């Protein structure tokens, strides 16, 4: 049950001063709370014997008020310490979780659903934080505070009455153990169901246009209703067990009251106990109700926190498929990119995706990559991004194997525009500045002109400050591509990778962008994959891929003379272009 505290030992060591002060003051407050019932009992005995005076009554009242003020002050401090630690661990774990996700490669996200990751980053981390705050409170109150009250009842009042009153308490511990095990199992299932629901919501929101286009709103509503019903049932199963805690504790605490009252009256009649001591004892017994509840809350919280921490650690313990080299080799600049008999296969693929690639690109050259759909164009370009473990053969930059170059240095050279553009829910300006944080408006406009987006910018309601919406929903496909291009251009990368990044723009706009690239990226390396051959006619070298192999390569003119797939595709596109014109 307490494995969650063991797994969080690193945090308690780090914040040991905070928790030492908080827990000590919590115990001191518990001891101080014993004073008012004892003072009240003494006052009742004085009244019963007729020895009470105005001065002694005033003394009792003043002492009780002083104790209450003291308890108030130290309670403020221990609550600030303990519950402040709860917020702190949540922030630390959430930061660690997010940083871990940012370091993960595509295979990780292929294995884990976004909705489930969101559930772990929200609900599960909140449960862990509750364990560190409220959990530590219940742990202290159900052990130290309970012990303090028990000792006070035994030594200050009557050990006989105390032993009789605690007879029902072992049954509480037995019930809590049974309930705790069931809570752990059911809460884990409930959190998994919550992750499924998150995933369904994300899919529905991101695919709302397709859902409406195919008139699937009612089906999607039914699917969501089914999944929320599953979440409801599993959370209800948790709540049913959770509901047993309080009645069980109340039942056995009530039995303790009955025993203490019955046996206490017997002791009073036999002059083994005074009336004031019996009143004090019953007040102490009333103070034991919360520690008894705390036992149930403790088990509940620890089981929930343990289940949640297991889910969070399951994610945090996954190591990235691609990691920084232990001893990275420093490279001044990417002078050459060379594939030497390079072969690659995706982890989930049953076929070889790239096979025996032999290719060299010098600094300042433009490489065109063409081929049929699924031929391996994107796969080839992505090898420079190191999203997957390296394949066999060699892939070197300036003669250094790519897996020996620090990832930060590698990424600092690269500007990447993928097939599916990702824009953030911010303004056009902020999306472009993502490539160069401190870029001025003048620099931004230069990147926009390079991406041939200046005329479209004039049509937007707030110009550079226009919000693009989630994933750029407010922009057309071509506009999103050009904003993505501007974001890459503004960084002025040594290596620019355009992965079919001009597919949504018309031929005239494409020609402008290509001309701008040729002019403004002189002396820098550019790699372009495309289906439209007009985008790579100017390239220094062009390769044609088919089933992961290079079947043709050369300049535009050489490939036309070769008479293979490139010539066939070029002629077809020329005919289509003439018909369009």
Question: What does the model show?
Answer:
The termini are far apart. It is elongated and about 120 Å long. The longest helix has 53 residues, at 217-269. The chain has 23 helices and ten strands. Helix 3 runs antiparallel to helix 5 (54-102). With 581 residues, the chain is of the alpha/beta class. The mean pLDDT is 86. The chain has two domains: 3-316, ABC transporter type 1, transmembrane domain (ABC transporter transmembrane region fold, Up-down Bundle); 336-580, P-loop containing nucleotide triphosphate hydrolases (Rossmann fold), CATH 3.40.50. The chain has a six-stranded mixed sheet. The chain has a four-stranded antiparallel sheet with strand order 2-1-4-5, with no helix packed on it. It has helices at residues 3-7, 9-14, 16-32, 35-49, 54-102, 106-111, 114-132, 134-157, 159-165, 169-206, 208-213, 217-269, 275-287, 289-316, 377-382, 407-413, 428-433, 441-450, 454-459, 477-489, 507-520, 556-562, 565-580; strands at 336-344, 354-362, 366-371, 392-397, 400-401, 414-417, 495-499, 525-529, 541-546, 549-554.
